[in-house]
Amino acid sequence: MNHPASVRTVLGDINSDQLGATNSHDHLFLRTPALPGQELDDVGAATAEAQAFAAAGGRTIVQWTPRGLGRRRADLAAIAAATGLHIVVATGRHRAMHHDPEEANRTADDLARLIVADITSTTHPCGLVKIGTGYHHLDTFERVSLEAAAAAHTLTGTPVAIHLELGSAGDLVLAELSKNSIPPTSTVLGHVGRNPDDGYLLELASSGAFLCFDGPSRANHPTDWRTPALIELLATRGHLHQVLVGGDTTTAAARSVTSGPGMPGVLQHFRNTVTQRIGDEAWETITVANPARALTLRPR
């Protein structure tokens, strides 16, 4: 099903060099008990947001909404077809607080089978395994998730993306993934900008993992202002090729079609603040070249 340097989108595999400007972490649809009343479940609003991103020059959206949280793969496929955007859809699972209590009873083998089925589906396949982890620790639920992700990666070569709670525990996650034979180069660590510790960030970068700065579509006031400087730090220390950016639009209020900068904001205001420090060529690396490598299927 896949070919060299291919990325799996909701409409099928494409060459990685077709991705173009990529929003490496966002949500068109999301429903979780952790955000009551802020559900992203309106097809019209999701389509309008995708169109706004395309109008800003975007070509690819990576939706990190995993299994069980209202990801709506059929609707994502319809939006991709209508807008001409590439949409990469996640499987996997978030932290326990986002799921029904019964999810805690699922074994790693059971979860791995579901993840692999999502990836290998001939209808609306998934091209990313998203796993949520906790604040400065990994609980049993999360270790099971990581074990399942490792099994799925071994079978399919699909990249693994991690929600790091407030950017923490990246070192613990990398150790767990290494124990389960997932190479850092097939790993995306999300929310790293929310723990703006230079030493910690450089330690994560030294592993070779991709580092995603996500959240400019909504307010993360304590850390937003540090993000451009952190990206500049990584660039000057030789880690530009590992940096990704995304909007992480998790509430209806954050969308550009309501009251937020939303998805197009990644390619507009956020782009401007970053390029003032590192220039246009480096931004192109972050939004085009790096996602093309991070999202590539790497079957063994």
Order of helices and strands: EEEHEHEHEHEHEHEHHEHHH
* 3D shape: globular
Which blocks of ≥5 consecutive residues have pLDDT under 50?
none
Question: Please, what is the oligomeric state?
Answer: single chain
| Category by helix and strand content | alpha/beta
Distance, first to last CA: 14 Å
Strand percentage: 15-25%
The whole-number mean of residue pLDDT values reads 94
The overall number of domains is: 1
Main sheet? Answer: 8 strands, parallel
The number of helical runs is: 11
Instruction: Estimate the helix proportion, in percent.
Output: 25-40%
Query: And the CATH topology?
Result: TIM Barrel
**CATH structural class:** Alpha Beta
Rg estimate, integer Å: 17 Å
Total strand segments? 10
Instruction: Report the CATH superfamily.
Output: Metal-dependent hydrolases
Largest beta sheet: what is the strand line-up?
3-4-5-6-7-8-9-10
Any idea what the CATH architecture is?
Alpha-Beta Barrel
InterPro entries: Metal_Hydrolase, Phosphotriesterase
Binding site for Zn(2+) 1: 25, 27, 130, 248
Modified residues (N6-carboxylysine): 130
Binding site for Zn(2+) 2: 130, 163, 191
